[in-house]
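So, who can interpret the following?
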Amino acid sequence: MNWGEIDTSKPAYPLVEKLILDDYRYIRNDITELTSGAPLYHSVLSAIAIGDGRTHSTFKRAKVDNEAGGNAVEELVSRGIIRVDKAKNIFSSWDENEKVDNKLFFNSPFIRFWFAFVSPLFKGVRDGDYEEVKTRFQNRQSEFVQLTFVQLSHELLKQNFQDDKIVEIGTYWDRNIELDIYAKTASGKTIVGTCKYTNSKVKKSELTKLKDSCTQNNIKADIFIIFSKRGFSSELKSLKQETLKLFTIKNFKSLVE
């Protein structure tokens, strides 16, 4: 975006107004070059940006049928705007005849932001009225950032497992379970984890929930990982060991460096 250095110690929303909303017309022209300004593409992109990314729920939210939605996705992939992550049959809990939706992800975090908070509310932004954007951003900021938090957590894990390098990492989902972290190390160990971008400390119950979910779905995890924006309860921290690793926001400093 050619913004130069940004003071990230400032609250996010004033930066959004200054750097994005005040420059709406110029950025909109750049976005239109990517999408041709097609209403169908914009509907699908907004649905991906504020939804769970699954194809079925995306098309439903965008109010398009599978054929039109599928054609739009194919074109948006060819333009490099989004990618399709296919569901993998890893665990025996998944019936071979069961259809599991693929997921749609933006290749650029900024484009995702635009179609979550700016494009759907363009009339007000165009007219200089930012109130709707401000309200939506304040109400959905943590929910929106969750995906970025998960993706950065994957990068931090790859950095931290140097003695037994991670050879595969991503999210996992099927009809029964959704995991923020599913990874394999070079030695064959399975890592399973969850990421909580919330304003409360993560308690032991979250670990219990994760373990129970793995047991119910025949997932044999060697290492459990929990990332937390606000840290952990004393009880959970006391359980930290080689098979349970806990990370907070402070740990992400190494990625920035």
Remarks:
- The chain has two domains: 12-129, 150-256.
- Residues 131-160 form the longest helix (30 residues).
- The longest strand covers residues 166-173.
- Residues 228 and 248 are 5 Å apart (CA to CA).
